[in-house]
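Final paragraph of the annual report: two paired records, presented back to back.
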Amino acid sequence: MNGDPKVNFSGLLRDYLDAGAATENVSAAVSSQVPVVEPEPGLVVNPWDIVLCTSGTLISCENAIVVLIIFHNPSLRAPMFLLIGSLALADLLAGIGLIINFVFAYLLQSEATKLVTIGLIVASFSASVCSLLAITVDRYLSLYYALTYHSERTVTFTYVMLIMLWGTSICLGLLPILGWNCLRDESTCSVVRPLTKNNTAILSISFLFMFALMLQLYIQICKIVMRHAHQIALQHHFLATSHYVTTRKGVSTLAIILGTFAACWMPFTLYSLIADYTYPSIYTYATLLPATYNSIINPVIYAFRNQEIQKALCLVCCGCIPSSLSQRARSPSDV
C-alpha cells in the first residue's frame, strides 16, 4: 500500500505568496493611517544678524559708560555735556534696539514685536543723527558768540533743541506702529521691512539735508578756528609754523568728524533711496552695518576726547586725575 503523503510544493508556495501579499496590504493600510512625523528643520541664523547683534552689544556697553558718567557727575551739566549725553542715550537705545531685533526675529516672531523693534531703531538712530546736528550747532554758537555763550539763554536754547530733536525722533519711530508700514502691501516695502518706500525716502532726504547743514556749519567753524588761531599767534608773537600747525590740527579734527559721519551713513542713505524690497538683502546688510559703526565711533570722538569726561572717567576707574589732564590747556584746535 503506497500511503506516503506527497508534499505539494506548488501549493505551499502559492499559499506563502498569498499570505505575504496579505501581510503587505495590512502593513500599508496601517501605515497610511499613522501620520508621518518629519524632523523639524534646525534654526538657521543669518550671520549678518549675528554681526548686527554684536555691534549692538558693543554700542550699548560703550554708550552706557558715557550716560552713567554724565548722569552721576553734577559738574557735567553744561549745554555741551547735555548734548553729548543726548547723543550717548540715543546710541545706547539704538544698540538695545539691535539686540532686541535679533532676539525677537528668532525667538518671538510677530507683527507687533517687529513694528515695535523697527520703531525703536528708527527713533534712536534719528535722535542720534539729530544730536550730532545739535552738537554742531552748539559748537558753532560757542565760537561765534564766545562772550555770551555761557549764559542762561544758551541753556534754554539747548533744552529747546533737545525737546525738538527727541520729539521729532519719537514721531518718526511711531509712524510704523501707527500704520505707516508695508505689512499689508508687500509691493510698498523698502529695503528695511516693514518700513515703506516713502518712509525711508523721507528719512534719507532728511539725513542729506542735515548733512548739508552740518557741512556748512563746520565750514564756518573752520573759518572761525583759523581766525582765532591767527589772532592768538599775533598776540603771543608765535611763529608762522606754530600757527600753521594749530590751524591744520583743527581742520583735520573737523575733517575726521564730518568724514566719519558721511562714510558711515551715506552708503545706506543713498542705497535706500534707489533700492526696494526686491533687491538682495545682502546689500541692505552691507550698507546698514557701517551706519551702526557710527554709534560705536561717536563716544570716542565726542565723549572720550573731552577733557572733563576724561577726568570723570579717571576718577571712577582709579580714583585720581592724571597730572597731564589737570594741566592741559584747551587750544583753538579742540573743536
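The closing record of the year follows.
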Amino acid sequence: MSPDTMSHGDDQPSQALAKPTFSEVQASTLVESVFGLKVSKIQSLPSYDDQNFHVYISRTKDSTGGLTEYVLKISNTETSKTPDLIEVQTHIIMFLRATGFPTAAVCRTKGDNITSLMSIDSGSEIKTYLVRLMTYLPGRPIAEISVSPQLLYDIGRLAAKLDKTLEKFHHPKLNSLHRENFIWNLKNVPLLEKYVYALGQNRNREIVEQVIQLFKDEIMTKFSHFRECINHGDFNDHNILIESKKSPFGDTEYQVSGILDFGDMSYGYYVFEVAITIMYMMIESNNPIQVGGHVLAGFESIIPLTAEERDALFLLVCSRFCQSLVMAAYSCQLYPENKEYLMITAKTGWKHLQQLFDMGQKAVEEIWFETAKTYKSGISM
C-alpha cells in the first residue's frame, strides 16, 4: 500500500470511524476462531482505511512444511458492505496465482469459504467487517530501491500481462467491477471537483482545475475509442515487491516477487493501467520524465496501444497525479493525525505534475515515444 491515499476499497473516500480497530489479541483470536490456525506471533501492519496484521502460525504436528506467515485483512465497514466486490477481487487473486503471477494464496475458513463476515457489537451499534487471510509474500517494495530502466520495462510488461490474462477470467458477479462512482477509477476524474477545495487557492489548484477541464474535453469524448479491460488500478511502488538476485556478471538484478492490493480493481481501459503505472513509477524516480518510455515499452511488448490511446496517455498520467494529490489533501483534513504518512508522496508528486505541465504534452510525448522506440527491435507479440 502506498503512503498517500493510494489504497482504498470503497466507492467514496473513507468515512470517519469506518476503519476497524481490532487489537492484536482480538485479531489473533479471530485467526484461531475463523481459520482454525494457532497464532504464535502477530503484528499490526500500516494501512490506510482497512486493518492488516502480519500473522505467524505455529506449525502443527501433521504439517508437511508449507507457509507459516500470513496477512490477516480486515476490511473497513464501508468496503464490507460490498461483499460481492471483495469476493470477485479475491477470486481474481486466486486466478492470477494459478496462472503463474506472484499473488498471495488465499486461505479458506473452517467453513471452506474465502471470506468471513464478522459482526461485532460495539455497544451503540453492530458493525460488520469482512475478514480474509492470505499468505505473506516475500520481498520488499520497489519504493526502497532505485529502479532501473530494465525493471521499469518489466513492470510495464507485467501490468499488461495481468490485464490480458484477466480477459480469460469469468465469475457470475463480475459486474460488481463496474464501479460507477469509484473515486479512484480514472474515468471519474471530474468527481475530484468536490474535493479541490482541500487544496486552498494556489498554483497547484489551478493546474488541477485545468487538468479536470482538459479531461472532460479531450478524454471523456474518446472513451468509446479505448479498449476496455479489468484494471488492477493501483500498480504503485508499495504494491510491487521485488527480490534481488545476482546476474552472471555479479551485478544485482531484481525480479518482481509479489503483487499486492487488489482493492482498487474495476473495469477501465488498457491505457488507464499503463498511465497509472507510469505515474507511480515516476514518484520516486531521480529522472521522472524518462520513466514513461520504459514502462510504455514493456506494456506495448504485450499490448501495443492504438493511436487514440497513445494520444491520451499524457493527460491520463496528469489526471492520476491529480487524483492522488487531491485525495491526499482531502484525507489530511479528514485524518490530521495521518498527515505525515499521507503527504510522503505528495511533495514529489506536485513537483512532477508541475514539470509535466510546464513541459507540455508534445515535449513529454517525444521523450516517452522515442525511448519506447529503442526497445522495438525486441518486441514480442
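DSSP finds ten helices and ten strands in the chain. This concludes the annual technical report; the extension proposal builds directly on these records.
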